[in-house]
Write a structure and sequence with these properties.
elongated, mainly alpha
Length: 142
């Protein structure tokens, strides 16, 4: 359940910070996860929390094992976004105007993108969910 809560909270936080010539020094400008793939991690987090609650209420530990599956998808999403910190910024920009790859590279050549707290919280929550799912599955075998 804790992993799912981390996914929900982390999805709402800043995933990417931007630095560049037009960004005032000392100003923290960033993009929330929900501007891009954070919508998916938010949904997966709610699903994990829901499965954990139902597992506790119904006393069905198999649901805890199943909760590891959405955690695996969230882990993949988190790793993709950690490898490409500009992904959320591009998704946010493309929600307003269509941008080709060449236009994006030219426009963003003077900016640096860095992963922020939100994506790390999502990554930790996703990994915790996968590990909890694996542990629950091994306990089912015993």
């Amino acid at each position: 359940m804790v992993g799912g809560i981390c996914l929900v909270v982390g999805s709402l936080l800043i995933w990417t910070r931007v630095e560049g010539p037009t960004v005032e020094p000392g100003t923290r400008y960033g993009f929330r996860g929900t501007s891009g793939d954070g919508v998916w991690t938010l949904i997966l987090g709610v699903l994990i929390v829901g499965l954990a609650i139902v597992a506790m209420a119904a006393r069905k530990p198999v649901l805890n094992a199943i909760a590891g599956i959405p955690g695996l998808f969230a882990t993949i999403i988190a790793l993709i976004n950690l490898a490409n910190p500009d992904r959320v910024a591009r998704a946010d920009t493309e929600s307003e105007i269509p941008v080709s790859d060449l236009m994006w590279e030219l426009a963003m050549a003077n900016f640096e993108f860095h992963s922020a707290l939100g994506i790390f919280v999502v990554s930790a929550g996703a990994l915790a969910s996968v590990i909890a799912g694996i542990l629950a599955a091994t306990n089912l075998r015993n």
